[in-house]
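Researcher: Good morning. I'm working through a list of sequences from a screen, and I'd like to move beyond sequence-only analysis. For each chain I'm collecting a predicted structure so we can compare shapes side by side. This is the next one on the list. No need for commentary yet; just the structure.
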Amino acid sequence: MGNITKVVVICGGRSAEREISLISGRAVKDSLEEAGIQVLLVDFTSLQKLPDLSTYEIVFIALHGHEGEGGDLQNFLTKKNIKFTGSGQIACSKTWNKRLCKEALSFNKIATPEWMVVNNLHEAFLHNGLENLYHSAVSIVGKEFFVKPAEEGSSIDIFKISNLSNFEEAIAKCTNANREFIFETLIEGKEITVSVLDGQCLPPIEINTTNKFYDYDAKYISNNTSLNEANLGEAELKEIKKMALNAFNALDCFGWARIDFMQNRDGKFFIIEINSAPGMTSHSCVPKAAELKNISYVQLVKKIINAKN
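Model: Good morning. Structure tokens for this chain:
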């Protein structure tokens, strides 16, 4: 870790991912202290209420949701000339918003599932009616699709749609329909995630869950979710790593990120989304991938702090 002796870890916040962020932050703090580093743990409430960070050498961003991944925090720290882990404001704003992310991927000819944008799901529902909105979606993204907020993490307000009844239930259950949503073609197959660290890909992880998809329960609550090294052939491994790095670079990411894929029944890879501040709990995908390279949690945190690209 060079001569770094003082680190700030920012976590918590007010998003739906608050508890996970706190667990990530505490784990990072503990690992840094184990390495003999002085650590200030900050439970984020607002940019205005951040303590004076000028005496610290770097900020480790373990803050999830818009507060940690939307770019405002990164912009704030950049203006104060304070170093921080991960991507800058531009990359974060593009990866946090699924529409912007998919537009960038498509522009760079990187495969992502077909999608359509609904500026405000509640207003679209009221204006078009349930059936018209549903049939409009089917005509563009197919009979099976996901409804997901353009800006949200941890699979909050994400619904798998296979018929009109599912669609009606999704709108009824949605915690906040008054925002931009993406309707995205459902890709059946393997769910795989690739962690990029300092310009290199860690071993791809395959996610298996007994839930309908890798939702909030599957990520953080269920004991029936497994994260294992993806069983890919040499050509597949080369392809998915190339796609991950291409996406990382196309979105102007820096340091580290996690790129989520689906591999369809024909073996084709599609990028679903990019996470600029991935979870760092002991059960999170990045630490699991690092383990496969014999990188301990403490070593992983050091690598994230020292990442050059």
